[in-house]
Structures are given as structure tokens and as C-alpha cells.
Amino acid sequence: MPATKQGTSAEDAMLVPRTEDWQIFVKSLDSVDIPKPKLAAAMRKYREWRSANSGDKNVAG
């Protein structure tokens, strides 16, 4: 019988930050002087997604 792959691979793992983690991350970026339009757009998209899914029981926070 061939050996099977054991454990968790990078493809199987998924990191899902908590709401508190996102808040700390965003707050740390507030002190940066260089404009980051792509990051700002990503944060807007995340906040829109959060508010649209606020009734979803799988969303932390």
C-alpha cells in the first residue's frame, strides 16, 4: 500500500484573523505617512464585506 501524506500542508491551512486583529492592524497603519491607495481600497472592501455579512453567524465579532 502506498504511503499517504500526513499532516497539514500550506494548501490545507487557512488563517482567519479575528476582528480585534484587523482593528490592531489597521490602527498600526494609521501612523504611516506614505499614502497607500491599494491598502486603503482593500480596507474599504473588507469593511463593506463586514457590514454586508454582519448577520452571518460565521463572521467573528
Compose a concise summary of this entry:
The chain is mainly alpha-helical and 61 residues long. The protein contains two helices and no strands. The chain is extended, with a radius of gyration of 17 Å.
Q: Which key features would you list for this structure?
A:
61 residues; mainly alpha; 44% helix; extended
Helix amount: 40-55%
Query: What would the principal axes of the Cα set say about the shape?
Result: extended
Work out the radius of gyration. 17 Å
Poorly predicted regions are: none
Residue fraction in strands = under 5%
Q: Structural class of the helix and strand makeup?
A: mainly alpha
Number of strands: 0
Mean pLDDT: 76
Distance between the termini: 46 Å
Query: Helical region count?
Result: 2
SSE string, helices as H and strands as E: HH
Q: Biggest sheet: strands, sense, closure? A: none
Oligomeric status: single chain
Structural description of this entry:
With 61 residues, the protein is an all-alpha fold. The chain is 44% helix and 0% strand. The chain contains two helices and no strands. The longest helix has 16 residues, at 37-52. The chain is extended and about 45 Å long.
Layout of secondary structure:
Layout: H1 19-29, H2 37-52
